[in-house]
Amino acid sequence: MTGPSHTVDVLVVGLGPAGATAAAAARRDGAKVLAIDRKREAGQPVQCAEFVPAMVGPMLDAGRSEALGASWRQHIQSMATFIDGDEPHISPQFPGHMIDRAAFDALLVEAAQAQGAECRLDCGLAALGPDGVARLTSGETIQARIVIGADGPRSKVGRAIGRVNTAIAETRQITVPLLTPYTATDIFLSPSLPGGYAWLFPKGSVANLGLGVAPPWRHRLKPELEALHRQLVAEGRVGGEVIRYTGGAIPVGGMLDPEGRLGSTEVLLAGDAAGLANPVTGAGINAAVVSGRLAGEATAAILNGQPDAGPDYAEELEDLYKASLDRALARRRQLLQLYKEDSGPSPADLQRGWIAFPQYWAEPTTRESAVR
User: Fold this and answer.
1) Is residue 1 over pLDDT 50?
2) Stretch 335-348: mean pLDDT, rounded?
3) Domain locations in the chain as residue ranges
4) 3-state percent breakdown (helix, strand, coil) of the chain, nearest 5
């Protein structure tokens, strides 16, 4: 790789919730920030079930809270968990929001631009060299004092510093008409969905209907989703029309070390690039926004002469997320192990592997600990 075309203080790779939030936070103290994303339009295509836990709101500053409000579509009050067609287990206190994820992402990018960050869409990272020089898909080369990797589960920035999400869940989702107003998220657990689950998330007059599985079973995505859609149509809950198809990858291997170095360039990872999605639920928007803000603040601190801000960022993420991610990862591994040992999980095993049930939160048995 040749020398850089130009230099910046901060290069942010990825303009999803983590990257856009990081770009805005890094820019507030006057740093020269370039943020890039290979997508032609912020948040498009949508690769998300679009549910945000209620707790994310208080963790946002004014600009990001405004984005949440403007992209809001409906409240969620509870969660219903179905295990192979049995009567649902109701979790009455499970508040959250359904959002328009494309609008949410676009508004976060606008907030970063309003802070003065240069945000480029349709411009990706082609390579990141061992000297920290980045080659963009535009052909430019950039030398940054700090690189923030917010480029998703298959992060090129993470790979450059040896941080790779090795466990991935594959997902498929359709958007369908919702025939009756609904304020709960439906979760469908079954042995036929190894390493994942199915969901119905209502969003006003439509619903996101999808499922995820571990990669060896990705061939089940289409038939299982079609079967669930037919079932809900027969029950009169959703319409037969498919408004939109989408899908994507979710990192489910737990937290990665989010801090590294390439030559003189400091590297921080945020969001899915840092493995912050929950290995059981797949939820990651909250962690993306929070880690993006913390990464941007750490970047500003480093530029202002605080060299320990990078390690401090890693320690703060560990304090916030590692215990819950480790528990979820252990539960996920325990369920997957059952497919190797016998015919798959029982209803009791599925309960132990899902957040709605007290068994999930119990301390693991000796046998369960051995699978960690």
Assistant:
1) no
2) 89
3) 6-74+97-166+253-324, 168-251
4) 35, 30, 35
- What are the tens digits of pLDDT across the range 269-298? 999 999 999 999 999 999 999 999 999 999
Would you give the distance in Å from CA 165 to the centre of its chain? 12
| Eight-class DSSP state of 48 | S
Cα torsion angle, 90, 325, 268, 121, sign: negative
Vertex 105 angle, CA 62 and 140, to 5°: 110
> Six-digit token pair at 200?
């119905």
Measured distance CA(121)–CA(37) in Å, rounded: 5
SS3 298: helix
Instruction: Name residue 351's amino acid.
Output: Q
Structure tokens at 366: 């000796």
CATH class of 6-74+97-166+253-324: alpha beta
Q: Give the integer Cα–Cα distance in Å for 293 and 283.
A: 18
What average pLDDT does range 44-59 have in this prediction?
Answer: 76
Domain 168-251 classification at class level: alpha beta
- CB–CB of 12/96 below 8 Å? no
